[in-house]
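Sequence design from tokenized structure. All designs in this work follow the same two-part layout: the structure record, then the generated sequence. An example of the structure record is given first.
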């Protein structure tokens, strides 16, 4: 049963991956920043949790499955021997140690911290080893999904929401078959890390300066929920806050969804970002308190859309 009308909705999703988003591009700026002080990314996550508590806003933390682990070991000299490979050497950067030795590869403490927080956050999924679903085989996609379900169960978590690594969409039917209710679709806003430099440049036109409100689409058994914007713009930093505010107002006016996302480590790269997010969430909280918008996680939104939730 699908509900026809909904109130304007605000969603924030976080691609929570520590080093996994850049594991195969070790020259990436984020890699060196994280490696320089491996406590700092966790500091970003703590900072975000504080902001969400301050404004009473629940988020969807799309976690890379390897971070559910506290340690991992080689078997017959092979890391994750039971996992099919996207590429032959896919697991070669995996140190196969533990959270103490290599805290950027394991994140059990992070998952625990999020689920024990006062705010009812959602743990979503971002694949086990950050593989591009648009390029990997069905066998790899299935193994990645099933592994996450198994690991999340140990935390008594049922995964419902999926964020594709690099927003590269593929094997949606595998998500459906494994009980996922919703996934984040492409970014409608201007800046997207998955786009090539030229596409991003082309998209720099004024018409794309607006972060558009989004609408969920029913894809035969799962909801596609596009993102309105990446809450980070390395090219035009000052534009993030005004763009988000305009997008939020437009969503309220058109009774649609405003869905932003970012990576916790983006806060490491751009010092103004935390402050911008703080200011923006204050606006969201005010609008929510005035009854203009509802704030929910992706999973909760899927429940509402499916008529499974006792929302008013
Ligand atoms: Zn491992
Ligand atoms: Zn990612």
């Amino acid at each position: 049963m699908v509900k026809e009308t909904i109130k304007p909705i605000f969603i924030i999703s976080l691609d929570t991956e520590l080093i996994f988003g850049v594991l195969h591009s070790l020259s990436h700026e984020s890699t060196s920043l994280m490696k320089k002080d491996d406590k700092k990314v966790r500091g970003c996550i703590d900072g975000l949790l504080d902001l969400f508590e301050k404004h009473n806003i629940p988020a969807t933390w799309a976690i890379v499955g390897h971070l559910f682990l506290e340690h991992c070991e080689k078997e017959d000299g092979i890391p994750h021997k039971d996992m099919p490979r996207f590429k032959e050497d896919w697991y070669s950067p995996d140190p196969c140690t533990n959270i103490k030795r290599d805290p950027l590869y394991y994140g059990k403490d992070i998952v625990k911290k999020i689920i024990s927080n006062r705010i009812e956050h959602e743990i979503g999924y971002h694949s086990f080893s950050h593989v591009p679903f648009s390029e990997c085989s069905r066998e790899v996609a299935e193994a990645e999904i099933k592994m996450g379900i198994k690991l999340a169960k140990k935390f008594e978590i049922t995964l419902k929401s999926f964020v594709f690594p690099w927003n590269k969409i593929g094997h949606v039917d595998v998500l459906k078959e494994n009980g996922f209710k919703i996934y984040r679709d492409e970014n409608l806003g201007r800046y997207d890390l998955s786009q090539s430099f030229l596409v991003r440049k082309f998209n720099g036109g004024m018409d794309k300066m607006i972060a558009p409100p989004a609408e969920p689409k029913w894809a035969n058994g799962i909801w596609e929920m596009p993102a309105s914007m990446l809450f980070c713009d390395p090219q035009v930093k000052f534009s993030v806050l005004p763009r988000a505010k305009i997008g939020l107002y437009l969503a309220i006016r058109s009774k649609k969804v405003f869905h932003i996302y970012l990576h916790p480590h983006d806060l490491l790269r751009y010092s103004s970002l935390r402050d911008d997010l703080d200011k923006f969430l204050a606006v969201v909280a005010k609008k929510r308190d005035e009854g203009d918008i509802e704030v929910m996680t992706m999973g909760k939104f899927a429940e509402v859309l499916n008529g499974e939730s006792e929302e008013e």
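The pocket of zinc ion (ligand 2) is lined by residues 15, 17, 21, 126, 130, 165 (CB under 6 Å). We note this feature because it recurs in several other targets discussed in the main text.
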